[in-house]
Prior knowledge:
There is one protein chain. By secondary structure, the chain is α/β, with parallel strands linked by helices. It has three domains: about 10-115, Rossmann fold, CATH 3.40.50.20; about 115-145, Double Stranded RNA Binding Domain, CATH 3.30.160; about 150-210. Helix content is about 45%, strand content about 15%. The protein is built from eight helices and seven strands. It has helices at about 20-30, 60-70, 80-95, 135-145, 150-165, 170-185, 185-195, 200-210, and strands at about 10-15, 35-40, 50-55, 75, 95-100, 115-120, 125. The strands form two sheets. Strands 3-2-1-4-5 form a five-stranded parallel sheet, sandwiched between helices. It has a two-stranded antiparallel ribbon with strand order 6-7. It binds ligand PQ2 and nicotinamide-adenine-dinucleotide. The site of ligand PQ2 has 21 residues, from α1 and α4. Nicotinamide-adenine-dinucleotide binds near residues 41 and 83. It catalyses: precorrin-2 + NAD(+) = sirohydrochlorin + NADH + 2 H(+). Pfam families: NAD_binding_7 (PF13241), Sirohm_synth_M (PF14824). Its EC number is 1.3.1.76.
Amino acid sequence: xxxxxxxxxxxxxxxxxxxxxxxRKARRFARETRTxxxxxxxxxRDFGDAELVRAAPDPDDVTDWVDRFEPALxxxxxxxxxxxxxxxxxxxxxxxxxxxxxRSGERDAGxxxxxxxxxxxxxxxxxxxxxxxPALSKHLRERIEAELDGAGAMAELTAExxxxxxxxxxxxxxxxxxxxxxxRDPSVWKALRSGDANPRREAAxxxxxxxxxxx
Length: 215
Ligand SMILES: C[C@@]1(CC(=O)O)C2=NC(=C\c3[nH]c(c(CCC(=O)O)c3CC(=O)O)Cc3[nH]c(c(CC(=O)O)c3CCC(=O)O)/C=C3\N/C(=C\2)[C@@H](CCC(=O)O)[C@]3(C)CC(=O)O)/[C@H]1CCC(=O)O
Ligand SMILES: NC(=O)c1ccc[n+]([C@@H]2O[C@H](COP(=O)([O-])OP(=O)(O)OC[C@H]3O[C@@H](n4cnc5c(N)ncnc54)[C@H](O)[C@@H]3O)[C@@H](O)[C@H]2O)c1
């Protein structure tokens, strides 16, 4: 399995199954793109901004639903194995990616796993066990969550710094050293996390130190 980051902006994701698993995936996906959930029931769960369509397609009907929404990704999260089988076949025929929630192995090309993710701004960490132990993915995600606090702000700050330094007469080697020093500096992290100090000023101090050869 090769982890890749996929931009689904402007695409449709079609989820079959309105149980806790379909709801969890729909909530996550609907934050970024149009997400449609097809299920005979939705209980009282939170589906975020997903569109809910009440229906219980038979295996033979699944292709029509896939053709109707032309999704880039189809999620098979129903409690019916035959329906999930048909969803995988229909997604493959339509050239869409497919995520099967009721299987850990037996994957073909085009079949994707949904990892546990932690997001902080533009920074994401995704954890997969290759399907072996979803509970372990969840546990590791919970441990990493605190670690990522401030990472989104650090990415934003260092993106600005990189752009400024690129426009200056600094050499690429000096620039690399300067940006590396900023992302490693505890006082910059502290300023970003606590708001007590100005992170940009802390970063400028760190960069000056690298230029004096102090790091
Ligand atoms: C990470 C996460 C993302 C998400 O779904 O959002 C996710 N499962 C999560 C939780 C979780 N899932 C299960 C438990 C109960 C404990 C346990 O069994 O471990 C818990 C933990 C809990 O609920 O506490 C049961 C389970 N899961 C799968 C099966 C089928 C099977 O194994 O055959 C069964 C058995 C069903 C049964 O027995 O009937 C299958 C898959 N689940 C995956 C992802 C993919 C592999 C990810 C990887 O590579 O690690 C894969 C292959 C397919 C897919 O869905 O993409 C999310 C954590 C989100 C978070 O909190 O961060
Ligand atoms: N990936 C994971 O993390 C994970 C975790 C637990 C369970 N599972 C597996 O994923 C599947 C879904 O889990 P769950 O806990 O949400 O199950 P669930 O039984 O609570 O929900 C299944 C949903 O599918 C709907 N459904 C049934 N037939 C349908 C059809 N023809 N078309 C559309 N929807 C239909 C049901 O009405 C229900 O809303 C199960 O098969 C389970 O084995 C996966």
